[in-house]
Design goal:
about 400 residues, alpha+beta, Peptidoglycan synthesis regulatory factor (PBP3), Domain 2, Beta-lactamase, 2 domains, 20 strands, about 30% helix
Amino acid sequence: MKKVLIGILTGVLLVSSPVSAKEEIEQLYAQSAVLMDADNGRVLFEKNGSEKKPMASTTKIMTCILALEEGNLTDVVNVSENAARQPKVHLGMQMDEKFYLRDLLYSLMLESHNDSAVAIAEHIGGSVQAFADKMNAKAKEIGCRDTYFITPNGLDASDDKGEHSTTAEDLARIMSYCILKSPKKESFLSITQKGSYHFMDVDCHRSFSCQNHNAFLTMMDGVLSGKTGFTGKAGYCYVGALESRGRTFVVALLGCGWPNNKGYKWADTRRLMTYGMENYELREAFSGKEPLRDVTVKAGIPTSGNLFEKAHVPVKIEKIQNSPVEVLLHREEEIETVVELQEEVQAPIERYEKLGTVRYILDREVLQQYPIVAQENVEKINFRWIFQKISGYYFLNEDGRM
């Protein structure tokens, strides 16, 4: 069977959004930064987005989502000596104290307590090392390519396999998973959106109070979640998410200043979020309504029944979804639609048989594709059919017509 490329039906491949993005966001403080479409993981803007760097306490979004997915909020967590001796910032827990997992997750995400992170890791994984293995396995499952976890709290660390590090792109991908794809996304959002939280240890000997240090929650409308981080090696880091008119943006920043430049991360986050909201809109795509020619069917019985005509079969795009599909696109972007369709096929052909493919491409990446299928059956010419047609030429009906 011979295939022919029918061609590009609409649009122009990514025109200039990366260039215009750099023109419009010329000055970022962060050494590495990514603006991501959380719905599909597409990077809308990046500055050294695939460069590996330490990520400080932004690590804790992975610790939190793993604890939510593999633990129960009512679990009782026993504090080990290792957890109790973690450095500041810490809750100040004491060895052999007991806490509910739910309360430690607020301590982890609102105040970024390092001892709570270790206590959670030991409870879920059995040890910090075993929990780190879970973190790395989850990162691979999510689609991270250059992330390596050693600690559950993000303190600078290295071992014979490498340095505790990630990339801005991977960090944005992890946050996207936490807020949109995890089966525990509602719990994650509920915890990270809480302004303050108060709790006691299980035995009610001591009380604790936590305040959310994600100041970005009140800086822009639609902020969903976020996590700050800082170590001397990582500098100020941040990962946050925002929803606006059905669009969900994630910003990840690594190495965004050192003391006394704590506010750099907020300026960068606002700049990137604003750029996303002003330049990217949801547009209907993958319509599946592109015009298609009929396909010639070699040795097929034509619909007309005429012995001397070629058979053709009408085709259609078989969409998996019936509802319109929307894609977040830059105002200068258009999706390229490419149709590959058989020029000629051999009879017999069955209805819904695949005869080609339509692909929707953006920035040289296939966003979606659908099969092109036959709309009806086409039987193969046989001796009986030929004999009947030939006989018709010699035996005219009473009106003098064949």
